[in-house]
Q: What sequence folds into this?
């Protein structure tokens, strides 16, 4: 089952105190609103003294193969953002969620706190063990967005017959200053494949290219981009270099500056386009989502709130912006983008689309590099109420076709399986589309036969089964799905298969 609705937990973070050098030393946190009510307390938290040093290590990839130090950093961030009272409301809000609901942490941040990578929040399991599952944003039920208090532009929710996406990529010279992005062509193919397979989407690439044209990385110029944006555009995507040119701010360890993206001029030389200029180009073109696949385009300083590219676009009236707060590997950026657009094609919330993008990055690095930190690099800025940036297109057949490519998720948690017990994560037969992801955790006891999911005739859509239990004695079946695809009932053969399975369970259970 897809997460169709995210409920908001709004956190307000203010600077409570500064040290002698002017750096933030204490943070005030208050739950402005949540699914279980408004917070009564404003909690004041000391900022860990070594936090900024840890953030420099994260940015420089010094923690990529150091999972325990990543967990330390994530716990330090969570101690600030979710102090005891706020954490209690967070836990109660999670327990209040329905089967198809998620929880959106909507952050209203003081300018001095806007540049912290809150996406790496980490909360260890109840029994104290530490693993990657403690990163909150690796749970598809959870989303984190940066909220800006701006007026929301008019009606976005007309349902067109297609969605138009302009995708600009640039890797201009000089390569000594702007390293050649060899993987841009790979990313372009991945995005094109993802969009071509979802009917109702029109992808316009800047510059235009023919299939097989891979000699050099693409280099878009401003004139080409403006020509592509003459027609109404729903999504603008940029992949290439980003810059944040800054200097020391009024306090020690603070920086002020301006963000920009790097396009090409007529001679393929680098042309820096400021956030203000980019916002001017995109304004009034109908763009509702901007995806910035350029390194550091998600970065902001703590004094001029609109200096960063992402924030400047929000100021210009763009409802949602996805940007990168640190460098990200080209191949992983391609995986993120492809998953993101598959999800948006069928009208999923931007929260769930970003979550699927993070999962795609994790999948790409699980073989040999499971602790690469790039899954936390994307930052979501959101102004759209409820997280719905686009309604699904009108073509029902095209929508179902796109849904068939979405990941199927089976998640099962029990506390312990005894020596006599059996735990089966999933049993899938006759799957005609999509993929199934099985997540299973056992920490206590299960006596008997535990079956996570049994699915016959899976034809598409996104299957989600979440199951939690303390002690299981006997038989525990997570889900039985006859036919997933339009709600049609299982046919006689499937009914017989389910009956046979039930007989098997009765025979094999202790």
A:
């Amino acid at each position: 089952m897809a997460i169709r609705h995210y409920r908001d937990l709004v956190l307000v973070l203010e600077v409570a105190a500064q040290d002698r050098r002017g750096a933030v030393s204490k943070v005030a946190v208050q739950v402005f609103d949540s699914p279980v009510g408004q917070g009564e307390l404003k909690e004041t938290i000391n900022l860990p003294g070594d936090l900024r040093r840890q953030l420099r290590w994260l940015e420089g990839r010094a923690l990529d193969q150091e999972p325990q130090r990543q967990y330390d950093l994530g716990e330090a961030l969570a101690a600030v953002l979710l102090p005891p009272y706020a954490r209690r409301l967070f836990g109660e809000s999670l327990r209040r969620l329905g089967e198809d609901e998620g929880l959106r942490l909507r952050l209203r941040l003081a300018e001095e706190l806007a540049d912290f990578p809150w996406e790496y929040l980490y909360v260890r399991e109840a029994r104290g063990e530490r693993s990657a599952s403690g990163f909150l944003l690796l749970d598809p039920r959870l989303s984190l967005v940066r909220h800006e208090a701006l007026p929301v532009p008019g009606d976005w929710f007309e349902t067109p017959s297609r969605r138009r996406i302009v995708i600009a990529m640039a890797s201009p010279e000089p390569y000594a200053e702007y390293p050649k992005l060899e993987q841009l062509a790979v990313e372009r193919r991945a995005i094109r494949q993802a969009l071509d397979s979802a009917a109702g989407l029109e992808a316009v690439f800047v510059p235009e290219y023919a299939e097989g044209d891979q000699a050099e990385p693409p280099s878009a110029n401003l004139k080409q981009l403006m020509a592509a944006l003459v027609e109404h555009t729903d999504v603008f995507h940029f992949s290439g270099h980003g810059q944040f040119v800054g200097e020391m701010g009024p306090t020690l360890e603070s920086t002020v500056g301006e963000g920009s993206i790097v396009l090409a001029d007529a001679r393929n030389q680098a042309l820096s386009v400021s956030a203000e200029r980019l916002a001017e180009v995109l304004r009034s073109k109908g763009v509702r989502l901007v995806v910035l696949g350029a390194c550091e385009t998600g970065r902001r300083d703590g004094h001029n709130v609109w200096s960063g590219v992402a924030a400047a676009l929000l100021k210009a009236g763009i409802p949602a912006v996805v940007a990168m707060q640190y460098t990200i590997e080209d191949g992983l950026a391609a995986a993120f983008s492809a998953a993101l657009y598959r999800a948006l094609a069928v009208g999923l919330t931007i929260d769930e689309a970003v979550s699927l993008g993070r999962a795609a990055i994790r999948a790409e690095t699980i073989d040999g590099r499971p602790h690469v930190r790039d899954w936390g690099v994307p930052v979501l800025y959101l102004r759209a109420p409820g997280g719905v940036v686009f309604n699904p297109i009108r073509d029902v057949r095209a929508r179902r076709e796109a849904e068939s490519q979405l990941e199927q998720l089976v998640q099962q948690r029990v506390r312990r399986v005894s020596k006599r017990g059996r735990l089966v994560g999933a049993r899938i037969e006759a799957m005609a589309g999509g993929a199934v992801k099985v997540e299973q955790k056992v920490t206590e006891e299960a006596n008997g036969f535990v079956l996570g999911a049994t699915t016959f005739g899976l034809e598409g859509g996104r299957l989600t089964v979440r199951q939690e239990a303390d002690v299981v004695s006997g038989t525990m079946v997570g889900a039985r799905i006859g036919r997933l695809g339009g709600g049609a009932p299982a046919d006689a053969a499937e009914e017989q298969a389910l009956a046979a399975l039930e007989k098997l369970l009765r025979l094999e259970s202790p």
Summary: The chain has three domains: 5-146, 163-348+376-401, 404-508.
